[in-house]
Amino acid sequence: MPLTDFHTTERVAERALSVVIPVYNEEQGLVALFERLYPALDALGVDYEIIFINDGSRDRSAAVLAEQFERRPDVTRVILFNGNFGQHRAILAGFEHCRGERIVTLDADLQNPPEDIHLLLEAMDKGHDCVGSIRRNRQDSAWRRWASRAMNRLRHRLTGIEMTDHGSMLRAYSRNVIQLINQCNEMNTFIPALALQFARNPAEVVTSHEERHAGVSKYSFYSLVRLNFDLVTGFSLVPLQAFSMLGIVVSLMSGLLFVILAGRRLIFGPEEGGVFTLFALLFLLMGLALFGIGLLGEYIGRIYQEVRARPRYVITAVLERERR
Fold first, then answer.
1. What is d(CA 197, CA 82) in angstroms, rounded to the nearest whole number?
2. Which sign, positive or negative, has the C-alpha torsion 163, 167, 168, 173?
């Protein structure tokens, strides 16, 4: 289906603001989140809703969310997945169910203070349709800060996407951007980058960053690597093109080496030296070939996931007050 402008196809939003929050094993911190989130949104003086997506939590997160729905059914909605599908798919489910004119995404771990939501909305008041956040004084480990900076630089060179802090999920989007995202059917995507492709006037604001209130990060080193693979392979063909160029260069150098060795044999006759150098060169070429096969496999794997056309997520239930 072609991407179309929201204003020509979609109904008028029923709320001024929707806050989408994915939840995975956050039982210990949810009460603290409620105590800060609802007052912060009440202070805005706008008609809002909060959509929690329970992404297959193994603890009591689903029960805690259900209890909160009973307390504030007027502004609370809960989507329950039947398994763990990942943070970005959970957010996509929230996008498909939200009713707000403006949509804010927020993590449940309280590292991004909900009190800073107003900063994003103030930027939207100035005409921006996609507002990201830049975490001030990040409270993550040193290796994660270093890896994030390195990936930011690499991502910009490979994709051309201008994003200062791609790891922060505190972001705000207009209804038009969300509608365009909802028309995309990728199994794996990186929502902030996808939104920037559709935004007409994006911006970034500086926000606070706190230590996790409870629990541990759900992103392991492997998960972070996978997320960055999704970001790069989902928005750029540069890795494939660069490896093709590398293959051409290596082929030319290998041909030149063959000519040199053949010439030496004709001039000096058989030589015993240089065997280990040739082995080292052989292992280098084998390593490059294996890396190239793995890179190609990443793209083929994405194609394989898309052509199967399986659901991105499965919803068990939605807790919400019936609309009148």
1. 31
2. positive
The H-assigned helical ranges of 199-322 are 221-235, 238-268, 275-308
Minimal CA–CA distance to 97: which of 112, 114, 123, 76? 76
Polymer length of the chain: 324
pLDDT > 90 in the chain, percent: 44
Interatomic CA distance for residues 21 and 54, integer angstroms: 9
Q: Which residue has the tokens 């169910």?
A: 97
Contact between 72 and 41 (Cβ < 8 Å): no
End-to-end CA distance of the chain: 31
Report helix, strand or coil for 133: strand
Answer yes or no: is pLDDT of 20 > 90. Answer: yes
Phi/psi at 15 (5° precision): -130, 155
Interatomic CA distance for residues 224 and 212, integer angstroms: 18
- What does the alpha-carbon distance between residue 306 and residue 322 come to, in Å, rounded to a whole number? 34
Would you say the pTM of this structure is higher than 0.85?
no
C-alpha count within 13 angstroms, C-beta hemisphere, residue 258 = 7
Higher pLDDT among residues 258 and 321, named by residue: 321
Q: How confident is the model at residue 1 (pLDDT cuts 50, 70, 90)?
A: very low
pLDDT tens-digit series, residues 144-181: 666 666 666 666 666 667 777 777 889 999 999 999 99
Whole-angstrom Cα distance, residue 136 to residue 159? 25
